[in-house]
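hey so i finally got around to running the thing on that chain from the lab meeting. sorry it took forever, my laptop kept dying and i had to restart like 3 times. anyway pasting the input first so we r on the same page abt which one it is
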Amino acid sequence: MRIRLSRLIGCFVAAAAVAWLATGDAAAQGPARAAKPAGIARTADGHPDLQGTFNVATITPVDRPAEFGNRLTLTADEAKAMEQYEVQRNEKDRAPSAADRTAPPVGGDKSPTKSYLEGLFRGGGGVVGGYNLIWINPGDRVLTVDGQMRTSIIVDPVDGHVPAMKAEARKRNAAFQARQVSPDAAEGAAGGPSGQYDGPEARPLAERCLLGFSSTSGPPTLPNYFYNNLKQIVQSGNTIMILNEMVHDVRYIRIGGKHPPAYIKKWLGDSIGRWEGDTLVVETTNFRDEGWLDVRGNPLTTTGKMIERFRRPTYGSLEIDVTIDDPKAYTESFTVRVDQRIMLDTELI
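ok and heres what got predicted. didnt touch it at all, straight out
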């Protein structure tokens, strides 16, 4: 099957705009502020400069909420209301607790939730609470692509949902979970087999700090909606590195060359890039069978092949198209799009 993740426009938010070279005079004058370049910044070899620190955080879910049906976009009023609700909810949750407050209801808070993040936090922390907002930074903006405010990151199929898994993929998941906690589970996950604490190999990959939970490590890099959503791209003439804030996973993209033999598998796959004009095209294969696209058990298996297209059309945007073919996993293709805004260096302080 083919999975297509298209134009992750700025799914990382470029921070610390352009690196500066510190000379003796510059050092004496103190840190220099990065200037906003005109047009497309380029490296010494003439290719677009993809470097920067980016943020994939957003309040828009990967899968489309049921109430939107096949609607791809939000109205301006709907998007504004969603963002304002998150601001108000965050202010309430950050407020000091009253000393004379009553005990929570038996079994915890089970009141209806009104936003995707609110429901996600309830599920992640349990009805009695988990991390509070001092520990998390999920994002505060609706995903905007081509000026359109989106109802979901997935835009194809038209219903905005991950396609159904094939029977073989469901059996693969069941086999994993019969002997260990699901590899894509978050830290401290329970509910696994009886021997889930017998050794490290039975614990989730994120708990063992091998990969960030969900698809925070990439590829493809998707938001996790909790924290540590930053990515940094460093570029040279023959290598591009993507450093993830979560678990500090590092992905290397070689420019040119060949993939290793198919029996050599890697946690993040093997990535080879080539320039087609101003577009960096990256092919990634050789995935391990423990790969997962997200926390809901959607797999990326050994038959997975990914094509990414990186473009930097302006200083303020980074566009990434991603196409995934995984004939062992899914019944049809799907497409995701995310928007990135450039961050000022002051936003990282």
